[in-house]
Design goal:
Distance between the termini: 69 Å
Structural class: alpha+beta
Order of helices and strands: HEEHHHEEEHEEH
Largest sheet: 5 strands, antiparallel
Low-confidence stretches: none
Number of helices: 6
Number of strands: 7
Shape: elongated
Oligomer: single chain
Helix content: 25-40%
Mean pLDDT: 87
Strand content: 25-35%
Radius of gyration: 22 Å
């Protein structure tokens, strides 16, 4: 297989990725970004290129995002960094980022995944946990010999143990 076929294959993967794949310069300005930016953030590529990444970050996540970018530029590989970006329609979009600095290219190479669905699952899990621990119903789980595997917080309140 020729090198050009490999390159075009990688380009197709990046172009068609559902995750944001982008490069930023040392100052934090977008140099390249794939088409996923439209689906994830509502912006066309041309609306993002040459803008600073902070223009799209939720104000409450700006300080941690700037610090994370600084760490990447210093050579640290960042995995599983979460922040919220602002969609073109104004909604918050939680993104999970991985980033690495390429000294050879003087670029930050980043991949960002929309984790809206995962955050909804986490919120439901937290709500479920609160209901189990503080609800009025007694909830318990037993093994085959009827030994307690789990007992909710209401068991103690109702039965004293």
């Amino acid at each position: 297989m020729e090198v050009n076929q490999h390159v075009s294959g990688w380009e197709r993967i990046i172009k068609n990725s559902l995750d944001i794949v982008c490069t930023l310069d040392r100052q934090g300005y977008y140099i390249n970004i794939n088409d996923a930016c439209k689906q994830v953030l509502g912006y066309d590529k041309e609306e993002i290129i040459e803008h600073h990444f902070s223009d799209f970050v939720h104000p409450l996540d700006l300080a941690s995002s700037l610090l994370s970018a600084e760490h990447v530029i210093q050579g640290l590989k960042v995995h599983n960094f979460e922040n919220r970006c602002i969609h073109k329609n104004g909604q918050e979009v939680p993104i999970l980022w991985s980033a690495v600095w390429s000294e050879e290219d003087s670029l930050m190479l980043c991949v960002g995944r929309d984790i809206t669905d995962q955050q909804l699952v986490r919120q439901k899990d937290k709500l479920h946990q609160v209901l189990v621990e503080h609800g009025i119903d007694m909830l318990a789980m037993f093994d085959q010999e009827l030994n307690f595997l789990y007992s909710g917080g209401s068991t103690f309140r109702i039965m004293g143990y």
